[in-house]
Amino acid sequence: MKKITLLFFAALCSIAAACGQTVKLGVLVGPNWSTIGSQNSIGETTAFTLGLHAGLFTEIAAGHWSIETGLVYADIGGKVNFSTEIAGNETVSLQYLQVPVSFVYNTTDRKFFFGGGPYIGFGLSGNISVNQTGGSFGQVDASSNFNLKFTFNSRTNPDYGINLLAGIHLNGGTIFTIGYGLGLRRVVDITYTTVRNDVITISIGHSIF
User: Fold this and answer.
1) d(CA 72, CA 76)
2) pLDDT at residue 117, rounded to an integer
3) From the first residue on, what is the mean pLDDT of each consecutive set of 10 residues in the chain (209 residues)?
4) Which residue in 21, 60, 64, 187 has its CB near the most CB atoms, within 10 A?
5) Rounded to whole angstroms, what are the CA distances from 154 to 42, 122, 151, 160?
6) What is the C-alpha R_g of the chain?
């Protein structure tokens, strides 16, 4: 994986340099707040959970415009609260290796930027934690907790969607970015409700060169 990552960025930098474009390579890290699904099902509400993302990025700039891509490890998911047949909640945690491609507009002084573009996320692993406190099929006297391994399949993996972002270039090569990612593919096989990734991110990046 390390060799593939290095070759990926080396190829991008070589192509950009050959075309006479400005190239930056850097690292990024930050928190994300994510949820899955929507409040389409009776007796269910969704909530955001806190996760982390980190990775490498490269920026190929020409004038006011630039293309940003990279490889990002992201831990995202969500929480669902039940209040009808089953009382309790479940928390889904999904780990992805994401490849975003964003088209970004920079202000004249290159201080501020905003843009967006598609992404694809390859599911690596996941877990579902279920906390059941009661239900119509028999009252549970005490909270029961279950941890289940989440299995990706061809109908849910890879994930893909659209990213929107805006940010500011700080002194010394540091970059502060706020982003929003909307998944366009169902990530859990549930037919009665929409279950897609919905993610808010805050990133601190720094250009290596």
Assistant:
1) 12
2) 96
3) 53 51 86 78 75 93 88 91 71 93 90 95 90 62 68 88 94 92 83 78 90
4) 187
5) 28, 11, 10, 13
6) 20
Q: Are 44 and 193 in contact (CB under 8 A)?
A: yes
What integer pLDDT is reported at residue 207 of this predicted model? 85
- pLDDT of 148 reads 77
Phi, psi of 146 (to 5 degrees): -130, 135
Domains of the chain, by residue range, sit at 2-207
Q: Which residue's entry shows tokens 């190239």?
A: 23
Q: 2-207: which CATH architecture?
A: Beta Barrel (2.40)
Are 190 and 156 in contact, with CB atoms under 8 Å apart?
Answer: no
What pLDDT is recorded for position 17? 52
3-state secondary structure the chain: CHHHHHHHHHHHHHHHHHCCCEEEEEEEEEEEEEEECCCCCCCEEEECEEEEEEEEEEEEEECCEEEEEEEEEEEEEEEEEEECCEEEEEEEEEEEEEEEEEEEEECCCCCEEEEEEEEEEEEEEEEEEEEEEEECCCCCCCCEEEEEECCCCCCCCCEEEEEEEEEEECHHHEEEEEEEEEECCCCCCCCCCCCCEEEEEEEEEEECC
pTM, two decimals, is 0.81
CA 23 to chain centre: 24
